[in-house]
């Protein structure tokens, strides 16, 4: 059987999937990540994962097994993607300061033309951040390729006072749900079948 294709350029996703011991290759998908007018956060994140999987499926036959994911930060119903520039990132951190937000990762697994979806939500609470703290954080360059402009696995972890739900979900690939999804499609991991 040919290896699973991970449709992702994210080094975090590569590292997390590798932990499961799955044989995979990487093929990034370039899609338009714009939010449609009136589109809610959950359908948006699910659509992004689906479009990434389909973009890669397009280059292969129907038999290829493809895993794609999308992670977004959601606050007050608004989707925060990756910051475009310094002021955008500053605005995101100011919104997250002293409050609780959601991190949603959607997974899409395609195999033999069949698609399986799953969306996972983690609630993350931030301590209050001063403007100076945000500026110092932005100077580290950590926020740029991260949804919401922070990395829980890096220095941004210092902003997190509590977390409810899957930690790996915040980093970009929920390990438990990924394992279940792979098993459902008969894709072997180091752990074998769940349950
Ligand atoms: C909130 C948060 C996000 N992230 C990352 C996970 C994702 O890589 C990124 C969200 O952007 P995504 O568009 O989900 O992923 P990506 O562009 O990095 O990779 P690809 O589309 O090719 O799969 O933010 C962290 O690494 N740490 C965090 O704490």
Automatic annotation (TrEMBL):
Annotated active site: 70
Subcellular location: Cytoplasm
Alphabetized GO MF terms: nucleoside triphosphate diphosphatase activity
Alphabetical list of SUPFAM superfamilies matching this protein: ITPase-like (SSF52972)
Cellular component aspect of the GO annotation: cytoplasm
Source taxon at top rank: Bacteria
NCBIfam families, alphabetized: maf
Functional summary from the UniProt entry: Nucleoside triphosphate pyrophosphatase that hydrolyzes dTTP and UTP. May have a dual role in cell division arrest and in preventing the incorporation of modified nucleotides into cellular nucleic acids.
Protein name: dTTP/UTP pyrophosphatase
Organism lineage string: Bacteria, Pseudomonadati, Pseudomonadota, Gammaproteobacteria, Cellvibrionales
